[in-house]
Amino acid sequence: MSDPARLAIGDLARQTGTKVNTVRFYEDIGLLPCPMRTASGRRIYNAADVRRLSFIRHGRTLGFSVDEIRSLLALSDQPERDCGEAAAIARQHLRDIEERIARLQTLRSALVGVAASCDGGRAADCRVIEAIAGVALLNNE
Amino acid sequence: MSDPARLAIGDLARQTGTKVNTVRFYEDIGLLPCPMRTASGRRIYNAADVRRLSFIRHGRTLGFSVDEIRSLLALSDQPERDCGEAAAIARQHLRDIEERIARLQTLRSALVGVAASCDGGRAADCRVIEAIAGVALLNNE
DNA sequence: ATACAATCTACAGCTACTGTAGAAGCAAGC
DNA sequence: GCTTGCTTCTACAGTAGCTGTAGATTGTAT
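Structure tokens for the assembled complex are given below, as produced in the milestone run.
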């Protein structure tokens, strides 16, 4: 495959920081179109595939789910459609992330107490285990 | 099952806020011991099982993995062992959570820009889609 | 007696990949 | 032409932690 416009699956994977298996997986679930094949059955990609897969990977890096990315791709495939939907997906995603941050911070404050409370001794007296076992941590504070 | 010390799986589930299927799942993976059975084959539980399952559920609520909980349970099953291990698990878990918070906050700042940048218009000009597609967001800022 | 709830086993499905097996294709060196 | 080693192919199993379902029993209330 010397023609630079015809990429093998490994080239596509390398250029986008994706694993080869993952490229095939995205094809299976319909995020990437079925590409053309060589006579011997190998997949052939081009620059448009690189752009599409980059989009997918950036979206995943930003924490969008595969379904969200599917919607965003559908939008960018139909450039005349209204873009409010994309904005809505992004805002919802932002809310989700802020919620997860808040939950993790609650968790963190609970754990700071637990983790600091013990540094050796008999397990029977372990305050970490006690804290997890007890209702106190979750109900009284 | 009128004897209050003999709990059916549904009672155990209700008392611990667990689904019945999940109780059986914990048995499968060895977090809960195989309980005694009635003559007809139904599982019988007692107060110790309630405590153990509560421990598991609290641990899961705190974000501990099943494997971490397995270690903590093993420790509390052997009360003479040193408790430093439990403390180490808790501290490691705390570090994990702090890392996840940091990652989500980075994500959040990236998304705040993306989500605010668009509120309608042609998808072709959508800044949300552009932002995800572009390298700019990830490489230049 | 009949209805309905709870339980049983066993297995499929969820997310988003990742890894593996076994076969076949391809390029380079000798 | 042959071998070596890399890439690719299909197909499937495994990861975490459950959840849901099917179809068969069992228990309980009316």
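Residues 1, 19, 21-22, 25, 29, 38, 40-42, 60, 65-66 of chain B lie near DNA strand D (CB under 10 Å from a C1'). Strands of chain B lie at 36-37, 43-44. Further analysis is deferred to the final report.
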